[in-house]
Amino acid sequence: MREISCKLLVIGAGPGGYVCAIRAGQLGLDTVIVDAGKPGGTCLNVGCIPSKALIHAAEEYEKVLHYAADAGPLGISLREPAIDLARTVAWKDNIVGRLNTGVAGLLRKAKVKTVEGRARFRDGKTVEVETETGRQVIRAEAVVIATGSAPVELPALPFGGPIISSTGALALAELPQNLIVVGAGYIGLELGMAFARMGSRLTVVEALPRILPQYDAELTRPVVKRLEALGAELLLGAKARGLSSTGDKLLVETADGRELQLAADRILVAVGRRPVIEGWGLDEIDLDRDGAFIRIDDHCRTSMRGVYAIGDVTGEPMLAHRAMAQGEMVAEIIAGRKRSWDKRVIPAICFTDPEIVTAGLSPEAARAAGREVTVGQFPFTANGRAMTRQGEDGFVRIVARTDNHLVLGIQAVGQGVSELAACFGLAIEMGACLEDVAATIHAHPTQGEAFQEAALKALGHALHI
Amino acid sequence: MAEHVIRLPDVGEGIAEAELVEWHVKIGDVVREDAVLAAVMTDKATVEIPSPVDGEVLWLGAEVGAMVAVGAPLVRLKTEGEGLIAPQEPLEAQQPHEARPLIVAEAAKPAQIAATRPSEPVETKPTMAAPRPAGGHRVAPGAPRPEGEKPLASPAVRLRAREAGIDLRQVAGTGPANRITHADLDAFMAGGLTVARTARQADTSIQEVKVIGLRRRIAEKMALAKSRIPHITYVEEVDVTALEELRAALNRDKRDDRPRLTLIPFLMRAMVRAIAEQPGMNALFDDEAGVIAIHGGVHIGIATQTPAGLVVPVVRHAEARDLWDCAAETARLAEAARAGLATREELTGSTITITSLGALGGIATTPVINHPEVAIVGVNKIAVRPVWDGSQFIPRKMMNLSSSFDHRVVDGWDAAVFVQRIKALLETPAMIFMET
């Protein structure tokens, strides 16, 4: 097969890789992108997008269950609702398919050449791709590694049979009656809660003494409360030991040392993700590492000249929007523009029920960094819009420097707060002070008013509480 | 008001794109018809792009260093009168005159030599400059930023600073919490307020200078020469006492219409004599074809420092020129090169090269061969040194020659013979002029 020579080769068509390729195409760089799977990577195919589709279906179904039980004050009633998970999953697959086509179209529009297959480095400038039609050699002046991450497997609970990863959980054809989630991080809880809302009996096994350990207890409290309301069993400080000899029960050692045998038709192992650093010839180019990740500098350069890395393979936080921003930056650097990673904030969202949003520093983190901080917190119980959408649990919290009121961090927990991530990120990136947020008119009636009120509260003159 | 788009004109036959090497205007400037807007460089020449109309610059189409396709929009001007033309209208319709390119200087494509001199400071210009504040009022600087604290600025301000090569830590912020505003950056760029520094801080700023235009060509040429050619450098000292006496005498009694003699024309004539005996030194080695082209004509490149960088004008057919002619031609070419007026023909076609740093010449240098030539002769500084004449030390004017040869095709022995021959000629200058 004839060799391809190009200016830029992107390995991996996930959110980091495809954004990098599109931007490079826009800038007129001769660009090739390689991926064995459909464009969009983990995010679009087995991550962000399909999980949100499932979570939405679960939310809708839970509502109708609520009405069917004649329990709602809204005066809505109906009879015998049911969910056909196979159809739900088919609908989700349709959305994913539409987005696959969309990304492929965007790449085409940017004049990026797509090569389907598994890429492998021959040296820092040359890659071989095993395609369906044979071996394709690609030579490039610059290479971007965007190989992403994969779910971590537990040695005692290898994937297969009843033991599934997040990818497997998104493709279930039938609702599990008993679902055990091992790992109470955001992936496990997002999916676990979705299935619980659709009717699965949920058990969560977490080795640490609390759920969502990256967030402070105040933020996670409404989620714990909701888990309890869903009837989920939380085994905290507990360890999953493996399957019973019959293969249908999970052996768990509890915090107080008891051995439990838990019946489950599905066990979702969601204990984290690891960078994909094998299978594409890292050995051939011997890049410096940062733990398990590829070491990069603030230009996303690796230790080899002309080789860049972006996204999950480069470290935490493993988030699609970080990868996208890196991809865009790297394309511009390769096109000769002066760019450097100088983002102030990468917001993070946990799509549990209720949702959690964080941007910047928590009060503890800011204090640990030696800052004297002022904190303003405004509860959704005092927000009209939250009341009318029956989502009064939660709050918006703003953390600012005491001396000059510079906003250091913003957190929120509550129904639908994920959309507030946009204004939180903008405020910090623009260098807003409490007065800026407080003096910005936030439209009424919205949950966003709680953001303004939190700033007012930090300034000592909240109006609605 | 109308908008006028100036596209990159056809700057030469067969040229599809050109490198933008300089902007003569910035956004907001008012330009007159025929004022130079920009300079672009092809691999043959530097071309200035004049404005075909009067107007105000609204938009610049590329960054310095970028390759611009012929026909691509380069500048948008706001022009007076001629009715309202919507900016989105097809651009061809609003182009009353063609932009006329002016060829000002032929670029030195081949031919650079290792002669390092402190390079000229390169100016980096902000490319996304926001309109300058209209009033002349200055904002008061904010309080100094404590050490180690990140400068606070919006993403747009940070991007502008990065592109302009400005370290925001040095810019005072006047906004709340000392936030740096666009206006603060404007003030800093205008050269006004440099504050925000406490006493003695480590300066970790990095100024990025794009390697463009002539500098890029020099860089490519040097890399080519050094990576392809295994150099052998031979340094020998030459007693130039007699030569200097002759030169002084000739200069003292010269006719007014004749140029002042430097050492270079003597060296050129000596090289012509030495090459007559070793023609292989006056050659071009095409290492891809494996062919050495030995030239009869001795075309001597003279490495010349210009404000833009190193160029090598060529004295053609030195074998057919006498001493005065060599001197006059060398002086004329150096002047043309420094003024940027040397033509392409005058900057190409050398078969051997001389590099001289004059008074900065040092004791020895390691000249880089002007690929694809095979030899370069470097002149070092003349100094009075004590020389042992067999019974005593006597003061003599001594000068070293540092010469490099392509060791693939020139053996060390031949190199030494060549330099020794030049040495003998220079030490007994009458021999340079003896008819054989």
From TrEMBL, chain A:
It holds the Pfam family Pyr_redox_2. Its EC number is 1.8.1.4. Binds 1 FAD per subunit. Its cofactor is FAD. Residues 7-327 form the FAD/NAD(P)-binding domain. Residues 346-455 form the Pyridine nucleotide-disulphide oxidoreductase dimerisation domain. PANTHER family: DIHYDROLIPOYL DEHYDROGENASE (PTHR22912:SF160), DISULFIDE OXIDOREDUCTASE (PTHR22912). Belongs to the class-I pyridine nucleotide-disulfide oxidoreductase family. This is Dihydrolipoyl dehydrogenase.
TrEMBL record, chain B:
Residues 114-152 are annotated as: Disordered. It comes from the Bacteria. Keywords: Acyltransferase, Lipoyl, Transferase. Its EC number is 2.3.1.-. Its cofactor is (R)-lipoate. The keyword Magnesium does not apply. It holds the Pfam family Biotin_lipoyl. One of its GO terms (molecular function) is acyltransferase activity. Residues 152-189 form the Peripheral subunit-binding (PSBD) domain. Residues 3-78 form the Lipoyl-binding domain. CDD domains: lipoyl_domain. Forms a 24-polypeptide structural core with octahedral symmetry. PANTHER family: DIHYDROLIPOAMIDE ACETYLTRANSFERASE COMPONENT OF PYRUVATE DEHYDROGENASE COMPLEX, LIPOAMIDE ACYLTRANSFERASE COMPONENT OF BRANCHED-CHAIN ALPHA-KETO ACID DEHYDROGENASE COMPLEX, MITOCHONDRIAL. Belongs to the 2-oxoacid dehydrogenase family. This is Dihydrolipoamide acetyltransferase component of pyruvate dehydrogenase complex.
